[in-house]
Structures are given as structure tokens and as C-alpha cells.
Specification:
This protein has helices spanning 9-36, 38-49, 53-79, 83-106, 114-130. With 143 residues, it is an all-alpha fold.
Length: 143
């Protein structure tokens, strides 16, 4: 009988946070749109951003969708102990940081989500430096 690898507690917490964030993030955005109204949001984008407002709005929503999908896929892969999930999460973090950095440089009035970046960097550090090497299925330890 094959012995199963035990999931580290920190990994369980990380995966739980990722799933909760991936589920609650769209819920909060949808609730905001429902409360404020789509017309008010579209008027605000048009008045502040001019003709590029809808492009920025579309790009922001596309980035949001990509981030949610990356979080869910990474969470499932991490739960199963797949090494590709660590790299996928790292690439997703890089995408998130670059997108927000460009957004901050273009429009500094929105602020930079420093706490989000710190949390993502801490998760990447724990996935690559703190977890046992034999937990994630890498090419070296596959037999």
C-alpha cells in the first residue's frame, strides 16, 4: 500500500486563503457593481479617463478574470502537491505585481496595493523555500 504524503499545515492555510480569495473577490466586486449601479461606474470611467476609459475597464476586468482562474488552478495543483502549481502561482504573482505597478505609474491616485504584494511575495517565499522538497512532485524525485 502506497503511503500518502502529508500536507504541511502552512500549505493547507495557503490553499484555503487562495480559494477563499478567488471566491470572495468576484463576489465583492459584483456586490459593489450592484450597489453603485453600472451606469454610475460607466459615467465615472468616461468622465475621468476619456476615451481610454472603456479600454482600461475591459483590461482591468480581463486581468481580474485571469487572476481568479490562476488562483483556483494553482490552489488545486498545490493541494495535490504538483510542482507546476508553484511555478504557476509565481507567474500569476509576477503578472499581478506588473499590472498593478503599471497601473500605479499611469495613475498614481489609485494607490499601490502594497499589502497584497507583500502577501503574495510571502506565499511565494513559503512555497519555494519553507516547504519540504519531497512534498512537491519534481522531476528529480519521480521514480
Amino acid at each position: 500500500m502506497e503511503q500518502k504524503r502529508k500536507r504541511p499545515i502552512l500549505l493547507q492555510v495557503i490553499v484555503g486563503m487562495m480559494v477563499v480569495a478567488a471566491v470572495l473577490w468576484p463576489v465583492v466586486v459584483w456586490q459593489y457593481i450592484k450597489d453603485v449601479g453600472f451606469e454610475a461606474i460607466s459615467e465615472a470611467y468616461e468622465s475621468t479617463s476619456g476615451r481610454w476609459g472603456w479600454f482600461e475597464f475591459w483590461l482591468g476586468n480581463f486581468h481580474f478574470l485571469v487572476q481568479v482562474i490562476l488562483m483556483l488552478v494553482s490552489a488545486v495543483g498545490l493541494w495535490r502537491g504538483k510542482d507546476w502549481a508553484r511555478r504557476l502561482w509565481l507567474y500569476g504573482c509576477i503578472l499581478y505585481i506588473v499590472y498593478n505597478m503599471v497601473g500605479y505609474l499611469v495613475s498614481p491616485r489609485n494607490g499601490f496595493p502594497l499589502l497584497d504584494v507583500i502577501i503574495r511575495v510571502a506565499i511565494c517565499y513559503s512555497l519555494f523555500c519553507l516547504h519540504p522538497k519531497d512534498y512537491f512532485q519534481t522531476q528529480e524525485n519521480k521514480t
